[in-house]
Specification:
single chain, mainly beta, about 60 residues
Length: about 60
């Protein structure tokens, strides 16, 4: 396995994230912030599926089902 560093523009300046996770098949990527903002994106294209700034007061854990 080879690790490559890459800056993802869609994740720049999004603030503190309490959790990040990938779907089981690896096709989706999700983040949950201390500000309650939830983002779900296609992976690796980073196309937005969901961008909900006021989903909760704070997101501490998340998982795909």
């Amino acid at each position: 396995m080879k690790l490559l560093a890459k800056e993802l523009a869609s994740l720049q300046n999004i603030g503190s994230q309490n959790c990040i996770t990938f779907s089981v098949d690896g096709s989706k990527f999700a983040t949950g912030g201390s500000d309650g903002h939830i983002r779900i994106m296609e992976w690796p294209s980073m196309n937005n599926i969901l961008d909900e700034p006021r989903a909760h007061k704070s997101v501490r854990d998340m998982d795909f089902r």
